[in-house]
Fold this sequence. Notes:
By secondary structure, this protein is mostly helical. The protein is built from eight helices and two strands.
Amino acid sequence: NVKLRGNVLAILGRADRALGKYDEALKALGQARTIAQNAQDHAWEGQLVADTAKVYRDAGQLDKALAVYDETLTLANTLPDHVLQGQTLIDQGKAYHALGRNEQAMQSFDKALVVTRQATLSDLEGKTLIEMGAGFNPELSGFDNILVTPNPKAHAIMTRLAFLNLVKNAAEAVADMGGEGEIHLTTAFRPGVRLSVPGQKSRVSLPL
């Protein structure tokens, strides 16, 4: 079974990548891609090309990874496969940033935001916002996007990140003082208000 052989080769390629056997991984994934092309299975081919880019990335060959990301995007746009497109744009942005090509990195992340928001891919949208912030302004970590993102799940991701960032900064400040300290976090959030009502001995809770 040719398809089965292709799947086995893809699995071997991913395993070799995890083990740091990059030449073997590229060979196995290349053979699997040939099978996918012969079968005209473009969705499968897109995944294999994406895996190939990860091999080059892990091997530190970022320029080659970027070239393969372009191939992946071409396939993803043709299908179309929005998940593959969004994830590839994120990975492309991270590679550009690692090479110090920050303007191109931001362009990739901006495109990823457009794709993930239009396709309502909340997990990938959250990942994009985190990468945009973590790579370029660790103190903000994409927090300005909380105000404009329409997706509640992405909003929750960024809120958790903001909370963790506050704790981290407070812990570093305590450590710099050279002594022991406690971190107290407070919030202005209230689930409701309590009102005094004529004729009632106790105050009445009014939910917001």
